[in-house]
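Example 9 (inverse folding). The structure is encoded as follows.
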């Protein structure tokens, strides 16, 4: 038997951490004396503790480690390691892009350029849009749910043999943004009406294009709303986005192209 101190020293884990792991049932002492509360471990637990340490160093959470300890299956472990590897790769790419963004901002500041000046380069157009039939579905959803609901519309179109005539659309009916619960209508333009369609009204629209990941959409929205106010227009209906290219066609978010439409009318003087 090993005392908690010996076990702590060999495994490089504090006794406080070992007591916490006992509390959350991650690894429990082999024996606890009733009167003194003295904890002791057996030799076989050394490798188990080192296994926990290794998974922690590989960025697995304690909850994930607990599941791996309970399953004890090499195939499942391989799957989870592959998942974690991809997760860490995605994080590394995120920080790589973040570093590039910071370098770009720093270079502009060194030149005396406002780091937000790129918004001025976003093109704005005033256009007339035609009315169109849309296969649609409206519900409260989180931002991660759009793909799921748009996928369901593609499923209906395929099953019913409806001809899709344009890229997917999201129409925002909520007055404020909630990433977990937005009142959103997703839609697919279709060639002819059917029992699932409604007409998306045409008319005067201000439009901007966002090139890049969806995190940049707010920049294009900012430019569009600025243009409206500077040129005497107000919103006539909720704005909507049309995903010309996205995750279904492009691997890199840098290649996403989203067109934003602001249905407008001239403000009363």
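The amino acid assigned to each position is listed next.
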């Amino acid at each position: 038997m090993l005392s908690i101190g010996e076990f702590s020293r060999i495994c490089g884990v504090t006794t406080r951490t070992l007591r916490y792991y006992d509390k959350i049932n991650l690894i429990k002492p082999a024996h606890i004396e009733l009167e003194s509360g003295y904890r002791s471990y057996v030799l076989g637990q050394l490798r188990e503790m080192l296994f926990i340490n290794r998974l922690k160093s590989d960025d697995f959470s304690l909850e994930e480690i607990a599941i791996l300890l309970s399953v004890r299956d090499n195939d499942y472990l391989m799957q989870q390691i592959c998942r974690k590897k991809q997760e860490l790769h995605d994080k590394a790419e995120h920080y790589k892009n973040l570093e590039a963004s910071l370098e770009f901002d720093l270079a502009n500041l060194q030149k005396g350029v406002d780091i937000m000046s790129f918004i001025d380069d976003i093109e704005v157009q005033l256009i007339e849009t035609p009315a169109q039939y849309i296969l649609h579905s409206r519900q409260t959803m989180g931002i991660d749910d759009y793909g799921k609901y748009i996928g369901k519309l593609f499923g209906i179109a395929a099953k019913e043999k409806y001809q899709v005539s344009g890229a997917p659309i999201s129409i925002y009916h909520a007055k404020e943004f909630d990433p977990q619960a937005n009142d959103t209508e997703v839609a697919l333009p279709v060639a002819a009406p059917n029992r699932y369609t409604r007409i998306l009204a045409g008319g005067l629209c201000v439009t901007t294009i966002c090139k890049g990941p969806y995190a940049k959409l707010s920049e294009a929205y900012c430019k569009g709303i600025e243009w409206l106010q500077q040129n005497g227009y107000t919103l006539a209906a909720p704005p909507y986005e049309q995903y010309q290219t996205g995750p279904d066609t492009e691997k890199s978010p840098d290649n996403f192209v989203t067109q934003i439409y602001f249905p407008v009318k001239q403000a009363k003087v």
